[in-house]
Design brief:
This protein is an alpha/beta fold. It has 5 domains: about 140 residues, 3-Layer(aba) Sandwich (Rossmann fold), CATH 3.40.50; about 120 residues, 3-Layer(aba) Sandwich (Rossmann fold), CATH 3.40.50.261; about 160 residues, Rossmann fold (3-Layer(aba) Sandwich); about 80 residues, ATP-grasp fold, A domain (Dna Ligase, domain 1, 2-Layer Sandwich), CATH 3.30.1490; about 130 residues, D-amino Acid Aminotransferase, Chain A, domain 1, CATH 3.30.470.20. About 35% of the residues lie in helices and about 20% in strands. It contains 24 helices and 30 strands. The strands form 6 sheets. Strands 9-8-11-10-12-13-14 form a 7-stranded mixed β-sheet, sandwiched between helices. Helix 22 crosses helix 24.
């Protein structure tokens, strides 16, 4: 019989905690949890386990877990690495639900440590004991008064709040915890996952998604082991209405190596991870400040009803600077209507500004009514959805207390979001504004970046319903069409046969083995035609001069066959060749690329972007986790910098976006259906025709790999073509 698999829900409701390796010294790692539990007001039983002492920190101590008289829900393990497995086995005998392993010396130290960690995971699974760690700093559940940590950040954990934070680095997590508390943000849970021998970041996010005390999720990630589960966890949190902010380390090759030495794992590629996480609904933080700012803003600011931003300042210059930043961030800063400007002009100084930004001027120093009247007008207007109040040099000469009161009262009266940028002003004023619960920034750019993240969050649409499925193929059918599962590229004829079966339209073509057959095929297809060499070992034919285009008659086709034969004998004398492909020339349209690959972290993914040579040089691509829905495919298309080309920008013909989306969906499904064998799919170019005329694949390449764990880097999408 398999032992019961406990969840984090069971661990955070612990009523009895054992500390294995307990210390008399409340400042030592093995002593802190006991002191922290007492200080937190934990009402359950605390059992120090240490054979050296009859008593630890005023509590009776026990020689081992077996000697503990009552049941134990959670055990903290703070012993040398060599003794951890025996401690976990003892947890199993005692019926302990979960163990928090502080001990280091596992996967983070190399091969021997990885082997020891593998054995630890095996023993824990057999014993039915869930593990957080090893090499972690523990768990804090503030609403339950449960401080199972040794982190210095939680010597004084502060009041419980609504933020669930999970981190792979305890030190970084402690820093984030301390800095967020300094800004008045409280935690529901803080979890240091460490090496993730068992409990990992995705499971923690899943727990936060269903926890009623958690409204905002934050995560610091150095490695992603199970990308699919992480995406599903983020999507679950977003479906529950909870923002998810993720800071990922290891984006560059250099930092990825550093992350590996620290956590025993390698980070996922940045472009793919960022795109997929964003698609699941996560907010991407690029550094510590962004994570802090986004979590802080989401915790303090109601969601705006729209995207229209108003700026109110006591400095015209600062207002203009902020307007420039708004433009760079894509924030909508609408001009105010004439009636609204007239209402402001009735009381603002003549040298002020009534547009957007609104400048109340330094006369705020002499006339304390300017701010509350301006706030009331702007926040009371239907023209503004969210207001940024930028105040500079508001010092002791100003009525600071009155300003703070005005900000709070007006926000409450109107119910609209207000963010404050307080630059070089009174520290007392900043403290008062922050203490009152308004989001406060001492840097205007950080303020506006946080606002941009908030507006992206508010503008998200509910998860789309799946579109009608493209043709789904059995693994047997895929293997049949590929001619078996042998590794390597398939030739264009075989690749496009599979693409057609998956629902992707391709140009009409004939496979021939002689000039006479080529001419007959061209006559049948209709001129003009193209003639290509068809060989699996030569996937990029144009680069080798093995394509002839725009052939308008039989004589031209015959000459092309002779030329290609000569070129083959010269450049590839020993390469097996299936034959020649005679194809209809594709109609004119916009060249796009669609690709897919089996990513080692996230599983099958799909890519699209501007095709032809542009995919290599522009690298304007969008990624999605396969399979994608029709709406998700549209989202990928709209995210491209080249998207205006598809809408008819600058006199260009509009393109059939529906057909492009359908092709993306079909290829994403093929990547999933063929995951066991298909390593990579490339359709380049896919010609997107005018609306209603569809899209047609001109060239296709499928690479087969019989080893599912192996995958190409995303950089394969950018190779020369």
């Amino acid at each position: 019989m398999n032992p019961q698999r406990y969840q984090l829900d069971d661990l955070v409701q612990a009523r009895a905690v054992a500390v294995v390796g307990a210390s008399q010294d409340p400042t030592r790692i093995g002593g802190r949890p006991i002191a922290f539990l007492k200080d937190a007001g934990f009402s359950g039983a605390i059992y120090p386990v240490n054979a050296k002492y009859p008593e630890v920190q005023g509590l009776r101590a026990y020689a081992d877990l077996d000697a503990v008289p009552g049941p134990v829900d959670v055990a903290i393990i703070s012993v040398p690495a060599r003794d951890v497995i025996a401690a976990i086995a003892a947890c199993g005998r005692k019926g302990v639900k979960g163990a928090i392993v502080f001990s280091s010396g596992f996967a983070e130290v190399g091969a021997a440590g990885r082997a020891l960690q593998g054995e630890l995971a095996r023993v824990a699974e057999q014993a039915g004991v869930r593990i957080i760690g090893p090499n972690c700093q523990g768990l804090v559940a503030l609403h339950q008064h449960l401080n199972l940590s040794f982190s210095s950040a939680f010597i004084d954990p502060g009041a419980p709040g609504a933020v669930g934070l999970v981190v792979q680095s305890g030190a970084v997590g402690g820093m984030l915890g301390a800095l967020l508390r300094e800004r008045g943000v409280g935690f529901s849970y803080w979890i240091s996952a460490g090496n993730e021998a068992d409990v990992a970041v995705p499971e923690c996010i899943e727990f936060f998604a269903r926890d009623p005390e958690t409204r905002i999720v934050g995560a610091y990630v150095e490695s992603i082991r199970d990308g699919r589960r992480l995406l599903a966890a983020v999507a679950a949190a977003r479906a529950a209405g909870k923002p998810v902010v993720i800071l990922r380390a290891g984006r560059s090759a250099q930092s990825a190596r550093a992350a590996a030495s620290h956590t025993g794992a390698i980070a996922a590629e940045d472009a793919v991870a960022a795109a997929l996480l964003a698609g699941a609904g996560a907010t991407d933080a690029r550094d510590v400040e962004e994570l802090l700012d986004y979590v802080y803003t989401f915790a303090r600011t109601p969601r705006p009803a729209g995207r229209r931003v108003g700026i109110l300042s006591n400095s015209g210059g600062l207002g203009v600077i902020m307007a420039d930043t708004c433009a760079e961030l894509g924030l909508e800063l609408p001009p105010l209507s004439a009636p609204l400007q007239q209402e402001l002009a009735a009381f603002l100084p003549a040298f002020g500004a009534t547009g957007n930004p609104v400048d109340v001027t330094a006369q705020l120093l002499a006339d304390a009514t300017l701010l509350p009247r301006s706030l009331a007008v702007m926040l009371g207007s239907r023209e503004i959805d969210v207001l940024v109040v930028m105040l500079g040099m508001v010092n002791r000469l100003y009525p600071v207390e009155t300003i703070v009161d005005d900000l709070l009262r007006t926000r409450v009266e109107t119910g609209k979001p207000v963010m404050v940028s307080w630059i070089a002003g009174s520290p007392e004023g900043a403290v008062a504004i922050n203490a009152a619960g308004l989001p406060l920034f001492t840097d205007s750019t950080r303020c506006l970046k946080a606002l941009a993240a908030l507006l992206r969050l508010a503008g998200e649409t509910p998860a789309p319903t799946p579109a009608a499925a493209a043709p789904r193929l059995s693994l047997h059918e895929i293997e049949r069409l590929l001619g078996g599962s042998e590794p390597g590229p398939r030739d264009e004829f075989l690749s496009k046969a599979l693409l057609r079966a998956a629902g992707v339209r391709a140009v009409a073509e004939r496979l021939v083995t002689s000039p006479d057959e080529a001419v007959a095929a061209a006559d049948d297809l209709g001129y003009p035609v193209a003639v290509k060499v068809c060989a699996a070992a030569i996937p990029h034919k144009s680069e080798h001069g093995l394509v002839r285009l725009g052939l308008t008659d039989a004589a031209a086709v015959a000459r092309a066959c002779a030329d290609l034969g000569a070129r083959l004998r010269e450049a590839f004398p020993s390469v097996p060749v299936r034959g020649l492909l005679v194809q209809q020339m594709a109609p004119r349209g916009i060249e796009m690329v669609i690709g897919a690959k089996r990513d080692p972290t996230f599983g099958p993914i799909v890519m699209t972007g501007l095709g032809g040579v542009f995919v290599e040089y522009m690298k304007d691509v969008a990624f999605g986790s396969a399979p994608v829905t029709h709406e998700q495919a549209f989202g990928m298309i709209r995210s491209l910098r080249a998207f205006p080309l598809l809408t008819g920008a600058r006199g260009q013909a509009e393109a059939d976006q529906d057909a492009l989306a359908e092709a993306i969906v079909a290829i994403s499904r093929l990547a999933v259906d063929g995951e066991r064998h298909i390593r990579e799919i490339d359709v380049n170019p896919l010609i997107v025709l005018p609306p209603g005329e569809g899209a047609v694949a001109v060239d296709g390449l499928i690479v087969v790999d019989p080893l599912p764990a192996t995958s190409l880097s995303a950089r394969a999408f950018f190779r020369e073509r």
